[in-house]
Amino acid sequence: MKKNNYLLRMVTLAMFVALGVVISPILRIEGMCPMAHLINITCAVFLGPAYAFVCALLIGIIRMLIMGIPPLALTGAIFGASLSGIFYKLSKGKIIAAVLGEIIGTGIIGSIVSYPVMTYLWGKEGLTWFFYTPSFICGTLIGGSIAFLLLLKLQQAGVLTKIQSSLRNTDPTDDKKDKVA
């Protein structure tokens, strides 16, 4: 059963990466990619912080290679995806915590980290430390709102719990065996 769960997590991660690469150009403006935040939060809630980080990293690398996107594809995603999963886990499953993690991770941390990356590695001049903050926060608010509504509807329908339990590392029949013994 654990092998099947691992395979299911890998397939789910691959689907999130593919979906992220395909829908990220939608509503994209330089420094603002709301659909990426939708993917980050949803992946964090479904799979957890480590998978959300890997998902954001892979999407960013693919977008940089194929679409010629600057390193903002990474700095604007990996911090938010990770914090989204961490906040969701720490809050014991509150969707709003996942959204706040994305807003803080991308809107604040990612935007500030983008300054030295874009200035020193990419050669953009005339930027300030908070140059990307307004657009990153706007992007996370848009994508976070969509993710919040999507996940809330899934939760209300009872589907979110089923998805999460099917993606867990543990074998659900192990608990029943322990209780019987």
Task: Detail the topology: elements first, then pairings.
Elements: H1 2-23, H2 34-47, H3 49-67, H4 72-75, H5 78-90, H6 95-121, H7 133-156, H8 159-167, H9 172-180
Helix pairs in contact: 1-2, 1-3, 2-3, 2-5, 2-6, 2-7, 3-5, 5-6, 6-7
Please characterize this protein's 3D structure.
The chain has 181 residues and is mainly alpha-helical. It has helices at residues 2-23, 34-47, 49-67, 72-75, 78-90, 95-121, 133-156, 159-167, 172-180. Helix 2 (34-47) runs antiparallel to helix 3 (49-67), helix 5 (78-90) packs antiparallel against helix 6 and helix 6 (95-121) runs antiparallel to helix 7. The two termini are 20 Å apart. Mean pLDDT is 88; it is low at 171-181.
What is the share of helical residues?
over 70%
Note the beta-strand portion.
Answer: under 5%
Question: Quick check: average pLDDT?
Answer: 88
Output the structural class.
Answer: mainly alpha
What form results from the Cα inertia axes? globular
Distance between the termini: 20 Å
Task: Give the C-alpha Rg.
Answer: 17 Å
Instruction: Give the count of helical stretches.
Output: 9
**Series of secondary-structure elements, N-terminal to C-terminal:** HHHHHHHHH
Poorly predicted ranges (pLDDT <50, ≥5 residues)? 171-181
Query: Using DSSP, what is the number of strands?
Result: 0
Report the sheet with the most strands, covering strand number, pairing sense and barrel closure: none
Nutshell version of this structure?
Helices cover 78% and strands 0% of the residues.
